[in-house]
Amino acid sequence: MRSELQSFPRVMGIVNINDDSFSGDGSLDVEKNLRQAVQMVKDGADIIDVGAESARTNREAIAEAEEVSRLLPFLEAFETACEEIEPRDELQMWPPRLSVNTWRSKVVEVALGTGRVHIINDIGGLVEDTNARLCCEFGASLLVMHTVGLPKEAHTQQQYDDVMQSLEEFFEDRIERARRVGLDADHLILDPGIDFAKQCADNLAIYRDLERLTRFDLPILLPISRKTVIGDVLGIEEPAKRDAGTIACLVRGLIARADIFRVHNVKAVADSVRVIAAIRGGTAMPA
Length: 287
Known about the structure:
The chain is α/β, with parallel strands linked by helices.
């Protein structure tokens, strides 16, 4: 999958099977979630990232059994729901890939056991190697997000002397941890974890110096959509009104050679990528 992810900027659409998403777009109605995912694919999504639990730290964690029960109906129906869709164009990765956003190893195991999931989006930062082992066992890719501490716990006071150095040291450790259990570079993706255990200045520094992560020669996912840092800069409290700032982050990410952009408004981002690609003569990436 590595070559597919790095051959052209990929758009990851966000589907929240919960009723407390920070962006207000989540739903417990699986049919509604499927319609949303299908529309994202039609709009150009290469990957659908589905999560059953909000990462918001001011919400109680749900039980593993509840997370699984929310996910399974979607995972089992997604491929069939996409059967009659045609690719948007020759640039779209086809068929679209399915990613599960979770950190609990039991949920990971069940999700991968369906045979329908291509990527595990580990928002827990791979604190131990179980999720890497499972991805290796099932032939899936692992997306490792930088964070500090446990998910669902606030880390708003975290401070860094050099946030990019902290990211580099973190990824050095996690890449080695994954490789020790047999997960090779073709199945690893890095996520700098915008807004997770970071202040506004930290997030801006990551966008500014993102090229430093290209030293790992691995796909980089940039979570740009409606982030708090955008609201901080623009003074916009409502996440759904931050799409213009999201496009600004997209442009910066393309310049910095990020590979995957995780977003709510797939059409706006996919359209933007294709216009930039046309201007550059067929590629949205730096020459």
